[in-house]
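The instructor's notes for this session suggest beginning with a concrete chain rather than abstract definitions. Hand out the sequence below and ask the class to guess, before any prediction is shown, which regions might be ordered.
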Amino acid sequence: MRVQVSRRAFLRDSMTAAVGAWAAPRLIPTQAWAGANQRLNIAMLACGGRAVQLVPSILASGENIVALCDVDARQIAHMKKLFADKLAGAKIYEDYRTLLDKEKTVDAVVISPGQRWHVPMCKRALEAGKHIFCEKPLAHSVAEARQIGQLVRQSKLVTQIGTQGGATDTFRRSIEVIQAGLLGRIQEVHCWINRGFPPSTRIDPNPDPIPEGLNWDFWCGPSPLLPFKQYYIAAPGQVGCLHWGRWLAFGDGHLADMGAHAMNLPWRALKLGPPTKVSVKSAEPVLDSYPSANSFCWECPSAEGHVVRLWWHDGHQAEPPEHLGKELLSTYGKVPTNGVLFVGEKGILYANAWGVGGVLKLQGDAKCRGVLDHEAAKPIPVSLPRTKDHMKEWLDACKGQGQTFQPLEIAAPIAEVALIGIVALRVGQSIQWDNAAMKVPGLPEADRWIHLEQRQKWL
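After discussion, reveal the predicted structure:
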């Protein structure tokens, strides 16, 4: 079965109020596409470093990778060299649109180019009736995140976002523990990673020579066509998010990249609604690249009706406030370099920035203890399904076996949270947020950052 969605319907639906996008997370029923014992035919849309990391899980599950697509021939050559015996028969494409039009036997696609490409490729794949595994960050603007959330809710295709921490037992157990009320009311969550870029700067207008085999215009795609610089792209075998992700024309820095992992756990565990206010402080004024250090704060309603202040901190010195960091010293000896810290009335829960390895420290505890081991947590029933492999969970669901835990329907509103923060970053001030209208009241200049202009040539 193919799902055909017209461009007009896509645009119409994307502009409706997205109340459903912020509903409590749920598991999405899947549609059987291939039989349980049938091997899936999969196309890789992008062949860079992240795709290389995903291929082994696909091959280990016994699936067929039948087509490879990338605008950089060097990336395809590198992937074929690494997996020569398994990919020898895969067809090669530069244009993802041509692949989706011609490869009628493809059941599913893995989408892992730069952030700017994720929604355009997801949209095309859904129109072609293909199941989707998409890497994070899901979208490059608030409007894009809203659009893809609307579209996937109309589809019965199987989707999964690449936030692999959500596949772990500790991630899912942390949700169960928090929702059982063991920490009491939670009004504050801090997410951080001590990773920073150089200070924000302007785009260099002096181009470097374009490498042979790279279609630079196509690589820029929906983003502006900038003068080529070698530092925008990753060498074959490298993951590219720390290259292009610094530049706001192509991505949204550490907030969109690691924030997609870190904010996943609090959004799901607390069943947060859309923010009503966002503030940001940066180490320097924002030019054409992501600043070197930032602190964002969103005020979001929880499912229980109270406001939760959700924080994101990045930069080489990033960490939670000192008085909260001290709560971790007895366990770790120092404040961890990344993490998610829930602050409750009865104690704290800490996990790393992927939401993995959760530990509890309740009132009276000298040290943290794991969410799987803490005596106070043991009576809490297991309510969420468990899995051992994020990719295999998706592959099985494509065959009608089980369900995906992190479909794009859930990923889209989480992406919106980060991208509303980027709007505040770009306008350089705290903002109020009207979620239904998808606007910053009284600040029409914010619209250009909510709806990024896109080049249509490659869409």
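Then share the key points. The chain has a mean pLDDT of 92. The longest helix spans residues 408-427.
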